[in-house]
Fold these 3 entries.
Entry 1:
Amino acid sequence: MDHTIYYVIGAILYIVGAPFLGCLMDGAERKLSARMQGRIGPPILQPWYDFVKLLNKQVVTVDRAQFFILLSYLVLMIMSGAMFFSGNDLLMTFFVLSTTGTFLYFAAIVPSSPYSSMAASRELIQEVCYEPAVLLLSVGFYLATGTFNARAVFSQHTSLILFMPGFLASYLFAMIIKLRLSPFDVSTSHHAHQELVQGVTTEMGARNLAIFKMAEWYEMVFLYGVVMVFILNSSPLSILAAVLVDLAMFFCFVLIDNTNARVKWENMLGMSWTVTGLCSGVNLLILMMIR
Amino acid sequence: MGKVKKSPWLLHYDGSSCNGCDIEVLATLTPVYDAERFGVVNTGDPLQADILMITGGINQQNAPVVKQLYDQMPRPKVVVAVGTCACSGGVFRECYNMLGGADSTVPVDIYVPGCAARPESIMDGILKAVALFQKRSDEHDQYEKEHKGEARPVDPSINTAHDKAKLKEMEGTADA
């Protein structure tokens, strides 16, 4: 427990810094997408301009409860990220992360608009798709390290990717769903669009949409943070390697987002469970055998 | 007061027209002209839109739709009429079902002429709208600051007596 101070700093850095980092990543994503399409694209700070604009708009809401529910969504998202970066119990962290999805569901369903309600059920389906991979991931961490304690998992001598490449593969697949990138942007698209594609954010305007965006930034930093855990080991150089892996993944995700059309939810369910079953399942069996 | 002019989100509605302007508006948003470099995003959601872009004229059937879209947009907002039909009704002006240009139903701020309006002039119209959007936003903030907590009076520019009378007259003839 001699490193407690680092974990406290980690959690504070996450709570304060994640929106800014997430905002920059969001901006970089839009810029990179534009360059891939042969466009100049918006400035890197565009998500920040959008955020400020949304806070300045007149508040028009169908149901006032939506604001409160979205705030809960944001707070739980911050909580799960802070739990992770402060080295708490991993299983608990992922459970809190699952709860956030439920709040997004409620936020989308309270205005009782047909598009929003439909997207809300799609959000639940999305959760059904990525949840097995995320939950199995914590089991994988337990089998590989013998503990759910994140601090012990973070301070391994060898990189965990050696023991759990299958878990990483299915987690990365789940991440595409969780980040709502094409082809799995079933509940809502990142880009402003028509009603059906707009999904859960259809009935969110002004500050409500701003809160949703901020929660997405927190989520993005958290999810990329989990990828780093696979790479980290006792050598300080591994931090650099982990950042490089994150950057490479970031590029791959934008490429996938730009080269794929949205799939039907049935296909998403089939694909995600197949990948999770094959990669995580086989990896799980091997880990159980060598232990 | 924020700098909102860097993030104008666009809601496009195509009224009664030949769809020529509709295609040109889409061309403006595609990679060739790339309106997104100014932060312009084409959204289908009036709740999130800042600029209402109307192509084509207004007829009896789409007038309530346009009005509803306008009313659903949160303040501050700007309306741009793109193309001759949206500006004045164009060649359809004298048709029995036409009310006229976009300004027959909602208050229009920027008129972009052309049949069909060229992407360059549409882009110019968007940028003019963006400048006006910033001005409106500053005024909106000022108003909110001065009249905190008060209900806002109905905007006299919406639902002018003329429009109401004209709509009523048309509804009357439709019933008969």
Note: The interface with chain B takes residues 30, 34, 37-43, 46, 49-50, 52-53, 55-60, 191-195, 197-198, 201-206, 209 of chain A (CB under 8 Å).
Entry 2:
Amino acid sequence: MKRIVVDQKYCKGCCLCISQCESEVLATSKNRNAKGYLATEAADPDKCIGCMRCELICPDMAITVEDVDDEN
Amino acid sequence: MHPIAEKYLRKSALPMIFCPGCGHGTVLNAFLRAVDDLGIIDDLSLVGGIGCSSWAPVFVNTDVLHTLHGRAIAVATGLKLAQPRRHVVVFTGDGDCIGIGGNHFMHAARRNIDLTVILLDNNIYGMTGGQVSPSTPMQATTQTSPHGNPDPPMDASTVAIACGATYVARWTSAHPLGIKKAVKQAIAHKGFSLVHTLSQCPTQAGRYIHGTPRADDLLEYYKARAVTRKQARKLPEDELSERIVIGTLHQSDQRPELCESIAAMHTSLKG
């Protein structure tokens, strides 16, 4: 199983990852980060298929698609 | 933050100065992945000129030279000749490389010196406020061409091939895996290598040339126009001018490399 982690400190909220995600996992957060940007967050993480497109397109390298062990 | 960014970026210089949605970050992301795969960070020297594009190497925690406007390739030529074992990679923009430094670019390609030039082409002088650059499309309005650009654009890849570059690839920021592959091939290639990456500039080129400040729309613009060389052969000439041909455009090992020629000359002079 894959898990998307968006680093709120470095995300500038450009939405490139949201445009690339075909599974609609990512969405713009309602809260501003320390730099004042509406950063992206993994709103629906269970939908992630681990295609890595968000991680590859992120201009600030703020996104990591991690492998997580499926405990179920 | 991504583990590759943790490993290679200077934390004190972050966040990157690029505007939100700038394609230069995506190219740097792909470049760092290529460097990580090759494992050459200790033998790497990065050179940048002036402009948004030339800021890209500054965030990488390795040897970096930030040089005069347009002179990145000239400084890199000296560095490569002094230390031929180092991998010298130049980050440069369309204004820096084919505008102000056009002469250095042409002659470095002609001499076939073993440099890797990553050209971040966003069709405009972004940092200084959106002036017309040599790759700005014809009729495009910018701050210095308010009634439309009267000049046809110049294609850096075609110029590099004509001048004698031995590796030329073109990709866009919508194809990060293509950029990563091209950077790996370009660094491994012995001779002048150009990785021409079209990179979106939502702030200047997006607003004034393409009519949208949205980075995702600009990525779609690239994706809609990108064709492979195979697809391009079937297209008529007038339609091809609207398209972006991506992939490895030229690769050859027929021309002598400058560092090797000079080393051979030194050996023959020593007798």
Note: The helical segments of chain A are 16-20, 53-57.
Entry 3:
Amino acid sequence: MKIAELTKTFGKITAVDTVSFSIDQPQMVGVIGPSGAGKSTMLRMINRLTDATRGSIRINDREILQLAGREKRRWQRDCAMIFQQFNLVPRLNVVTNVLMGRLNGHSTIKSLFCVFGRHMVDEALAALDRLGIADQALQRAETLSGGQQQRVAIARALMQQPKMVLADEPIASLDPLSAEKVMTALREIRDRDHLTVICNLHTLDTARTYCDRVIGMLQGRIVFDDEPSRLTPSVVRDIYGANEELNESMTSTSIPGPVYPPEPVRIRKPALA
Amino acid sequence: MASSTLVIQPPAPVTGSLTVFSRIRRNSLLVMAGTGLTVLYLLYTFLSFDVWGLISRSRPQRAVLLATDAVAHKVHVTKTIRGADSLSIAVEGERTATYETPPGWVTVSDDLTRVDLAEGFQVDITGTHVIFQIPDLGPIHVRITDAGIETTLPEGVDPPDWLRATPAKFDARPTIGRRVQVSRARIEVHRYFMGWENFFFPFRSKLAVYSPGELFSLAFSDQRLDPAMPNWRLMATTFWNNPGWQHKQVFIALLETFLMAVLGTLTAALVGLPLAVLAAANFTPSQALRFAVRRLFDFLRGIDMLIWSLIFIRAFGLGPLTGALAIAFTDTGSLGKLFSEALEGVNRKQMEGVHATGANRLQFYRFGVIPQIIPVFVSQTLYYLESNIRSATIIGALGAGGIGLMLVEAMNTQRHWENVFYLILLTISLVMVMDTVSAKLRSRLIHGRSGI
């Protein structure tokens, strides 16, 4: 995959600014950067949830940004997306949510009536089993914990039989234990299925532990693109744009809450108009 | 342990406490003013609608009479004076329900007919002379003469208020369940009995004479009352074709009303949903289209169902389909508005999740949108269905048919209040059944294990 000069502007704001990089072999890429750096917008442009303003994304000499209609939808199935808020349909049961990964390619009439063949259901169950939640197959998605829901979302992604997996802050709303399970599952997609996984993260330690390559973004631009071992404190400081000394724990999920001294009660008298 | 007294020191006022206090004071003044205005308004309406006059003019006795008629039936003992001198005893005075032999409480001898009205009340008829025995009052003599009707009360008794005696007519009703009327043409005695007469089988039917126990054993007996069919079938057909209570017609009418409501509501829901998509801001970018659809909803809803049905009765004539159309028109407006509001409140995240899998437009609606509005769709549609059963009764009364029309006809005859009461009971039970069924359906669909 080769991304060149990818740009997205919202009015006067440039969210993603002439981003270029390429991925030659299956690898796990972590994208880090402060919020507002354009990480999500970039992933959404790759999946075509958001249209790019300029630039190109080419895979095997096929221009992804030019795809439309049926071909665009087929591409969306090929690059499965995982979201921070899981984006499952909460009222539907888990297995139906997973089966939705195969909507593209399934007959419209059949899907309107929720008709799925035996082999498809078996496949969905196998995907759930791989993530260790086959027991919950018939529960409504909304009854599951956050970590379980994210694993359902990964099962849905697997059901898409994707060529690539995009994950937009997949562990940002999870507790550390669930986060580890989800990251392990994503890493397994890279190791077992040999697929590229691009994963937006906001914790440096996670990027270090799971990724083969880290891309650092700041204000829409790529400011770092190398192995995680090259992430030195000075590089991190550049990425997060911090002037004073930046402690690694600041970007970790386990920040101890600061203690503020209690302030005296003051009620401000509203100003008379 | 030494005991000590707790002294609460008023705290030093916090800066700005006066502002907080005045806010709270203003709130309490607002509440008091609101309550005061409501009371004033009620007082004004009480005076301007002349509620005192209404109460003083009300006639609770008529209500008691109607209530009695609804749960009791009367047997007429009628003696015709002119022409052939004849005596007939009939339920509700109907020719089809005339006793062949007098019941036990009427004794007929050569020239005396004695009607026992129980508890000491008794009427003796000899020719044109009637003696009405009333306990604690004594006998009232009534004679039909050429000069008119001549009434003689026992000596020293003032005419009671339940008695109307003029030379043209004598009418006495000492209690709710006893009445004697005498005119120059006939003498009529009414005795009331609790219960609905001949509810199951018509008066003339062979089955009318049996008790429930006998009927039960007869139903499975091999000895056929009618050689053409087994007894249980005879019972069923006799009941079904009962001419007084018209069970068959009532059932058909009830079904008609129910179908009118179902057809109307279902049409409204199925037409309202796609229109609601056009009226929802997050699905239809065109403001002009949205405006047009919303005004259409307002128009449909703004004209009341009754007005629509009057219009459609003019246009398409009487019939249940007309009623269904009126319901469909009004409720397309109401349900469309409700659905479009529900659609505007949908969660984008799950829609995006479906979109990102490469689903096409219809699949996107099916899995991204429909599951989210199913709860509103189901519960509102069921609620409207329930409420439309009541509306269909009223529309039916206008001429669209069904139980409403039957009810109005029964009310118009003025005589069969028990029929009116029966039809009202049936309508209420239909609404109650619908309520139970829809509650079950709703919870099954909304809270059930797997959604749609």
Note: The radius of gyration of chain A is 21 Å.
